[in-house]
Design goal:
576 residues, 6-stranded antiparallel β-sheet
Length: 576
């Protein structure tokens, strides 16, 4: 009886120590996993919020750049400068200026009005019945002096509430621009009103969660944009927004929100996105419930098993320990001894489950790396060569100076269409027709620059027009053909672009009659088996295609010295 009591006490002691240790381990593992997984999800949410806010901010920056270009184009219009500089105003010139205003407004549906005021008070505008403070000497008008003091660059101001109405459809964002003559003296000002809803249109696709919101403030602490109009009236709410701007990027655990700010480089605006982390809160709650449930179940199992099989612990654990030592040879599951005690079997099962989870996590890490690579490539192909933009704008200004308004309009439309197709609504895929149209706009612009030195043609099989392909895969190839093949030759350059189908493969071909190069000699000098692609843009296109469709597809180059180069892009047929 005494022996039985001693055995029972020993078993209870083993059980108590085992249960304490089990509870502590489960609690520790649960806390570590909970904190680690929460941290991982929070980092991903932070990265996603940052990417979404910065992408929307860049879209607004691009639009502002476009508005500045429009303002510069109007303010520096030779006819307008000549008209305001002359003491005797020519009615025909005035008509041409008004026509230019209407044409400019036709290029952007968000432009509400264009008002041009001379120093002596004459007004040219698309609107009639303007209510503005005028005098024979506009230098006495405060609003005129403010616009004039903006200098040579446009100035963006906050939303202007007409007649103090809270209807956002009546709000505008104003751009002012001084107009000077050839001597640099003020002869007038330009005012452009853009519909306030343009910001909402550009932020329509920004997903910040159920309770998330975004807003814009200028450097003076004034609200430029907020979905809730109360923030334009309530000082307390405006102070709350200013506090968010001052704190910049941070995570508010109490409100379960993540904030990221983006300073617009071409305006005194700060764009702020406050993301509601609904998924993070739900994930934390589910993790806590799972950890509690698993902990309770394991604790009950441990209690029953230690009470029944305390005397059979040592031997099964020794066998399990030996099996675990072999983990250095690789991630392998261990056989479960059906005759062993429950604790040993449970540990073996958890060990095997751990191996499976480790392999799963390793696979997830690999997939995340691939996703990261895909994101980097997406960011690369969304970039626009700034030199191309600068050169195009210089060409437009040059044409405007020579009064070639038709070409200015054509170039501006082509540039706008080029950027619209480049953005493609934020999608990574587009149609063959849109991709060819994107190249057509690019070549049209370059044709205006190079003149008779460049000719081109674009052909497409009718059946391929609606086939889906990755966007921005042709323009880098055409740009490479122009700058490395056509530009330096002393004869007329030709670029042929075509889309054809070869069985189940789409071939997008770019051929030129430029300098070309000796493929064999290049291979010999570099000691390579394949032609090394030139330029980051072409390499990027080749890597993107291989990432989308696999290694059999991509870019294939054939070239002959002094005869030209042919580049073929091969992708599988995927209909829309």
């Amino acid at each position: 009886m005494k022996k039985f009591t001693m055995m029972k006490t020993l078993r209870m002691q083993i059980a108590l120590h085992y249960l304490k240790a089990s509870a502590l381990i489960l609690l520790l593992i649960g806390c570590i996993l909970y904190v680690s997984m929460s941290s991982i999800v929070l980092r991903e949410a932070t990265a996603n919020t940052k990417a979404a806010v910065e992408q929307s901010g860049m879209y607004i920056e691009l639009y502002i750049d476009r508005l500045k270009a429009v303002a510069d184009l109007l303010a520096e219009n030779p006819q307008l400068v000549s008209y305001f500089s002359s003491p005797e105003r020519d009615a025909a010139v005035k008509k041409d200026v008004l026509s230019t205003i209407r044409t400019t407004m036709a290029t952007d549906p968000f432009i509400q009005s264009v008002v041009i005021v001379s120093k002596d008070g004459e007004v040219l505008s698309n609107e009639t019945g303007l209510i503005m403070s005028m005098s024979s000497n506009m230098m006495q008008e405060q609003w005129y002096v403010a616009a004039m003091n903006s200098g040579s660059k446009p100035v963006l101001t906050s939303a202007r509430m007409q007649q103090f109405s809270m209807d956002k459809d009546n709000w505008v964002i104003s751009i002012s621009r001084e107009i000077t003559n050839s001597a640099g003296k003020n002869i007038g000002v330009l005012l452009i009103d853009i519909q306030y809803t343009v910001i909402e249109d550009y932020l329509a696709d920004l997903d910040l969660g159920k309770n998330g919101f975004s807003f814009i403030m200028n450097d003076n602490g004034e609200v430029v944009y907020h979905k809730d109009t109360m923030y334009f009236e309530d000082d307390t709410k405006q102070q709350e927004l200013q506090r968010i701007v001052n704190d910049q990027a941070w995570y508010d655990a109490a409100q379960n929100t993540l904030t990221h700010t983006y300073k617009l480089e071409n305006a005194d605006w700060t764009f702020v996105g406050v993301s509601s982390q609904d998924a993070l809160l739900m994930m934390k709650r589910q993790l806590l419930e799972i950890f509690l449930l698993v902990g309770v179940v394991l604790f009950i199992i441990a209690t029953v098993s230690v009470a029944l099989f305390a005397g059979r612990i040592t031997t099964p654990f020794q066998r399990l320990e030996k099996a675990m030592q072999n983990i250095e040879q690789g991630l392998k599951t261990v056989p479960i001894d059906e005759k062993g005690c429950y604790e040993a079997q449970s540990l073996a099962k958890h060990f095997n489950s751990m191996i499976v989870q480790i392999e799963k996590l390793m696979q997830e890490i690999t997939e995340k790396e691939q996703h990261l690579r895909a994101s980097e490539i997406s960011a690369l192909h969304s970039q626009i060569n700034p030199h191309f933009l600068y050169n195009t704008l210089d060409t437009i200004i040059w044409m405007a100076e020579f009064n070639d308004s038709e070409k200015v309009i054509d170039m501006t439309k082509a540039l706008a269409q080029f950027f619209r197709l480049s953005l493609s609504g934020g999608n990574d895929m587009t149609t063959v027709e849109n991709e060819l149209d994107h190249v057509r706009q690019y070549l049209f612009i370059q044709k205006e620059r190079y003149g008779e030195q460049l000719n081109y043609s674009i052909d497409c099989e009718e059946a391929l027009r609606n086939v889906q392909v990755p966007k921005l895969i042709l323009q880098p190839i055409v740009e490479n053909a122009l700058y490395h093949g056509i530009r330096s030759i002393d004869r007329t350059g030709y670029i042929w672009v075509s889309a054809s189908q070869n069985e189940n493969v789409i071939e997008l071909t770019v051929r030129d009659n430029g300098e070309g190069f000796d493929v064999k000699q290049l291979d010999k000098e570099r000691g390579e088996k394949q032609v090394k692609l030139g330029g980051v843009g072409i390499k990027n296109v080749d890597e993107r295609i291989k990432l989308y469709y696999g290694s059999p597809y991509g870019i294939f180059i054939d070239s002959q010295k002094d005869k030209g180069t042919t580049v073929r892009i091969k992708i599988p047929m995927l209909r829309k």
